[in-house]
């Protein structure tokens, strides 16, 4: 993976933490967004971890260039920041990020987010997940949400609601008493029917269409 943060001590610390985790290897580091984009395009890492506040091209724009709607072959990007600000979260997810963490998340959550992104999953800091998705739906585009290319099945609706609540595939399998492979099949079907690029977009759609409501 590639790690980008303009503060050397933070960047080095993140790289050390991640290198110590099973199955994770930091192959490059960058001190600004432009360099991060260049390195990521050249190395095509499984996951990029970008700070938001960087000189020149910030983490949001770097994410958009590597994972945005216009990118034919997007990379997996997890955004990390010190600041728990909704506008950062919205911008990161709209730019194509697969995860959003605060720098106080700890090594376990950091590792989980990286592995999730690498496997096509998504992980957002629990402290912001529900709040951000609900607010995202409230302040999102005024255009009507896109309709699925085919109607969702009852089971897909159940999986959709669980994804929107931030549940992992394993948690969904346990809650619905189905196998992990079946959950993955349903999630893949949801992404196809909703033309969603990742689980975050699936979750946003659930809130935009009020499948998941406040207090639910």
Automatic annotation (TrEMBL):
Ranges for domain Response regulatory: 1-118
Keyword terms of this UniProt record: DNA-binding, Phosphoprotein, Transcription, Transcription regulation
Record keyword Aminoacyl-tRNA synthetase present: no
GO biological process, one term: regulation of DNA-templated transcription
Keyword Glycoprotein in record: no
Protein name: DNA-binding response regulator
Chain positions found as 4-aspartylphosphate: 51
SUPFAM superfamilies, per database record: C-terminal effector domain of the bipartite response regulators, CheY-like
Database matches in Pfam families: GerE (PF00196), Response_reg (PF00072)
Highest taxon, organism lineage: Bacteria
């Amino acid at each position: 993976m590639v790690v980008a943060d303009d503060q050397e001590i933070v960047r080095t610390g993140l790289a050390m933490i991640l290198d110590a985790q099973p199955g994770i290897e930091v192959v490059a580091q960058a001190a600004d967004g432009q360099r991060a984009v260049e390195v990521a395009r050249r190395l095509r890492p499984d996951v990029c971890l970008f700070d938001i506040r960087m000189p020149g091209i910030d983490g949001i724009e770097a994410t958009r260039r590597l994972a945005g709607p216009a990118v034919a072959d997007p990379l997996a990007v997890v955004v990390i920041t010190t600041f728990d600000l909704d506008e950062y979260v919205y911008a990161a997810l709209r730019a194509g990020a697969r995860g959003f963490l605060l720098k106080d998340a700890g090594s376990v959550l950091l590792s989980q987010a990286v592995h999730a992104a690498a496997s096509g999953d998504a992980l957002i800091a629990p402290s912001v997940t529900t709040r951000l998705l609900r607010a995202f739906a409230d302040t999102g585009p005024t255009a009507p949400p896109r309709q699925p290319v085919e109607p969702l099945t009852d089971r897909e609706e159940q999986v959709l609601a669980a994804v929107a609540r931030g549940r992992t595939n394993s948690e969904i399998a346990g809650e619905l008493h189905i196998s992990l492979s079946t959950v993955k099949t349903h999630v893949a079907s949801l992404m196809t029917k909703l033309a969603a690029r990742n689980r975050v977009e699936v979750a946003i759609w659930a809130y935009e269409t009020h499948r998941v409501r406040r207090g639910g």
